[in-house]
Specification:
Layout lengths: L1 H12 L7 H12 L9 H7 L5 H5 L3 H9 L8 H37 L5 H15 L21 H7 L14
Length: 177
């Protein structure tokens, strides 16, 4: 019987292994920005883990829940931890999905502004960066790997046309020209 309990503890302990280090840092970043979604309560998942299979069933780990139910009362050694980890994983994935959805909506609105020429390319890039910072888990500080910097030179179309007459006929890739 002890071998079965040990096997079950090892088996169900891996069912909800929790977030990896990067995911945990991302979730902390989302929480700091007030963007985190709590679909499942980690406290409730932990508390329910004291009941036979409760933490696992609460966090949608039905196979582990059945096994925990069969091995109760021994499952109280691992099910509260599984419940906590499972709730964290669900909350992380819900948060990422929500932020991606909101970011896509804002980007579509910004793209519409660019297409209707209500913003120029420079304003577009600044607003795009602001949207990325708003919905990203970690604040983008404008490091050298960033695709756009505020000190990026702006091309003066008229000066280029004067210097190169061939460019005078170029539409600069504008849509609808």
């Amino acid at each position: 019987m002890k071998k079965i309990i040990l096997f079950a503890a090892v088996f169900t302990g891996g069912c909800a292994s929790g977030l990896n280090t990067m995911q945990h840092q991302e979730l902390l970043g989302y929480e700091a920005k007030g963007l985190a979604i709590e679909e499942k309560s980690t406290g409730a998942a932990t508390a329910l883990g004291l009941l036979p299979g409760g933490g696992s069933f609460y966090t949608r780990q039905y196979g582990a829940g059945v096994l925990d139910l069969l091995l109760w009362p021994y499952s109280v050694l691992w099910d509260p931890i599984n419940g906590y980890n499972g709730a964290q994983e669900i909350n992380y994935h819900a948060t990422v999905a929500n932020c991606t959805k909101l970011k896509n909506i804002d980007m579509l609105d910004l793209d519409a502004l660019l297409m209707t020429k209500q913003v120029d390319n420079g304003q577009y890039m600044l607003k795009k960066r602001a949207i990325e910072n708003k919905y990203g888990s970690i604040e983008n500080t404008g490091n050298s790997q960033a695709p756009y910097q505020e000190n990026t030179p702006v091309i003066n179309k008229e000066a280029v046309k004067e210097a190169d007459p061939i460019k005078a006929n170029d539409n600069w890739g504008e849509i609808g020209s």
